[in-house]
């Protein structure tokens, strides 16, 4: 793309690049077996998103809401849990440097909006500049709740808990690199999970008047793209000029959207799913290490970014590129647009190790 007049506009995921908090998973720990159930629903949703649909990555948060209500979780519980959010390492310096250099920032977050009611003001980001999952548990409770809903939720959960040991083994296998399709197709316990949750979400709850994917506006892959287009119109910029920073499976669709238009999707401390359609990957313990890449993008476009990664701004260690920035643990930059699947898996392992060092709690399953 032309490098003339590339605007200083950063679109970024929230959880991971800016804050460390999985609000939905963490609040699920407030009821018995909550995090296990969350991880199971998350794996089920990812299987649907990667195979038959109609679910998209991120829709776990739509499936979860009635489980939260069944166990007495409220909006105030979500706000209370959000207060334990941790800022990503180096993020305050990162945002300060961007603002000093006239960058405009917009945030796209699958997380429930309660997260950003707390974190947005701390980071100095206007809530109007954050596209998040606008969910009200109280509103859903007033519209979709009663004994029949609770009975349906508890029945499905009890069925899943009967196979807990086998499901935990499958979750570990997935974390260790097993194919999600193989797990659900080959393991009886996971086939039962799929059948149980299919019946709950596609039959029982719709018969009671609740359709999770329609009634809960989660900021999933498609909505991130829609919100990006809306912000572009409001700001008077073209999507092909954008940078997007993400780190996970919920960023995959917007990565594809921006990459295919000639923009710059960056995966930072990412999982394999966040890397597979990125152009640049950055493994770092200090988010301010992204600033040179962003400034290079506005000055030299994609060609300049690639030259930055491969030039004297970094030094080679074998096939790896390590930055010469003065940090306790060097930042690693990779140009992954042309990387093979094997190379992406190798880079993903480096990102996983970086992620585990900087996060203070175990990462979610996805």
How would you describe this structure to a colleague?
The chain is of the alpha/beta class. The protein folds into 2 domains: 9-21 and 87-134 and 220-358, HAD superfamily/HAD-like (Rossmann fold, 3-Layer(aba) Sandwich), CATH 3.40.50.1000; 23-80 and 135-215. The chain has helices spanning 23-28, 34-50, 60-70, 75-82, 91-100, 114-123, 137-143, 147-161, 164-175, 180-186, 188-207, 212-215, 221-235, 252-261, 272-275, 291-310, 341-358; strands at residues 9-13, 19-20, 86-87, 104-112, 130-133, 243-246, 264-268, 280-283, 314-317, 320-323, 332-335. It has a 7-stranded mixed sheet, with helices on both faces. Strands 2-3 form a two-stranded antiparallel ribbon. Strands 9-10 form a two-stranded antiparallel ribbon. The longest helix is centred in the middle third of the chain and has 20 residues, at 188-207. It is globular, with a radius of gyration of 21 Å. Mean pLDDT is 91; it is low at 314-327.
Concise structural overview:
This protein is of the alpha/beta class and 366 residues long.
Number of domains: 2
Sheet with the most strands?
7 strands, mixed
Mean pLDDT: 91
The proportion of residues in beta strands is 5-15%
* Spatial shape: globular
Category by helix and strand content: alpha/beta
SSE topology string: EEHHHHEHEHEHHHHHHHEHEHEHEEEH
CATH fold node name of the largest domain? Rossmann fold
Helix content percent band:
40-55%
Give me the CATH architecture of the largest domain, please: 3-Layer(aba) Sandwich
Radius of gyration: 21 Å
Assigned CATH class of the largest domain = Alpha Beta
Major sheet: arrangement of strands: 5-4-1-6-7-8-11
CATH superfamily of the largest domain: HAD superfamily/HAD-like
Number of E-state strands: 11
Tally of contiguous helical segments = 17
Q: First CA to last CA: what distance?
A: 33 Å
């Amino acid at each position: 793309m032309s490098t003339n007049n590339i605007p200083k506009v950063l679109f970024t995921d929230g959880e991971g690049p800016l804050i460390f908090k999985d609000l939905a998973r963490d609040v699920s720990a407030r009821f018995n077996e909550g995090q296990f159930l969350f991880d199971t629903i998350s794996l089920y949703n990812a299987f649907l998103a990667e195979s038959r649909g109609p679910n998209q990555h991120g829709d776990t948060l739509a499936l979860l809401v009635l489980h939260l209500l069944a166990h007495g979780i409220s909006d105030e519980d979500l706000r209370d849990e959000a207060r334990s959010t941790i800022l990503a390492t180096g993020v305050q310096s990162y945002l300060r440097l961007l603002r000093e250099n006239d960058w405009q920032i917009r945030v796209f977050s699958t997380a429930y909006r309660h997260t950003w009611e707390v974190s947005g003001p701390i980071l100095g980001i206007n809530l109007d500049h954050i596209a998040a999952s606008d969910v009200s548990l109280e509103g859903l409770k007033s519209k979709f709740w009663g004994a029949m809903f609770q009975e349906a939720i508890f029945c499905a959960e009890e069925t899943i808990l009967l196979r807990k040991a086998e499901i935990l083994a499958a979750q570990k296998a997935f974390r260790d690199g097993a194919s999600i399709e193989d797990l659900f197709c080959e393991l009886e316990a996971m086939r039962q999970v799929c059948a149980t949750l299919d019946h709950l979400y596609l039959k029982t709850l719709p018969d009671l008047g609740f359709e999770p994917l329609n009634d809960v506006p989660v900021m999933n892959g498609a909505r991130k793209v829609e919100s990006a287009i809306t912000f572009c119109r409001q700001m008077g910029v073209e999507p092909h000029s954008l940078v997007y920073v993400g780190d996970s499976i919920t960023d995959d669709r917007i990565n594809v959207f921006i990459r295919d238009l000639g923009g710059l999707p960056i995966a930072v401390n990412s999982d394999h799913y966040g890397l597979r359609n990125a152009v640049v990957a950055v493994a770092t313990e200090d988010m301010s290490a992204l600033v040179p890449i962003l400034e290079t993008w506005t000055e030299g476009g994609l060609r300049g970014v690639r030259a930055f990664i491969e030039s004297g701004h970094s030094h080679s260690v074998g096939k790896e590129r390590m930055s010469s920035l003065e940090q306790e643990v060097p930042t690693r930059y990779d140009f992954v647009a042309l990387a093979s699947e094997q190379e992406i898996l190798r880079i993903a392992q480096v990102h996983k190790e970086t992620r585990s060092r900087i996060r203070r709690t175990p990462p979610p399953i996805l």
